[in-house]
Amino acid sequence: MKIKITTKNLTLTPPLQEYINEKMGALDRFFGENTELTIMVEISKITKHHKKGDFFETIVGLDSGSNTFRAESRTFDIRVAIDEVRVELERQLISRRGKWAAQYLRGARLFKRFAKFSPLAWFRSKKGHRVREEGI
Prior knowledge:
By secondary structure, the protein is of the alpha+beta class.
C-alpha cells in the first residue's frame, strides 16, 4: 500500500504523518493481499483566520486498480477531518463489498437454476410463456 500525503498552507509534522498512516492503513483490511492500493491524502488549511468556521480540509482518494473511491471533509480540527474521511471511505467500501457479494450470489443462483433442469424439461404454454414440466 502506498500513501502519498500532500499539504497546502500547513507543514506536515511526524506525529501527523504517523496518524495519517495509521488511520489510512486500516483500510487495507477491505482488500486482498495481492491488491496494490494507492491512497492520496491532501490536507489543507483553507482560511488564515481561525474564527471563520471550518478551516481544515482533507481530501482522500483511494485507487485499487479497478475501483476508485473518494471522500472529503472540512472541520475545525485536522485529526477529526482525517477520522471523518476514513469513516466515509469505510462506508463506501462496505457498500461496494455488498454489491460484489450480491452479484456473485445472483450469478450462482442463475447457474444453479439453469444447471438443475435440462433444456428438454421446458416447453411452451398456450400463451407463449416458458413453463417447466412437472415430473421431468
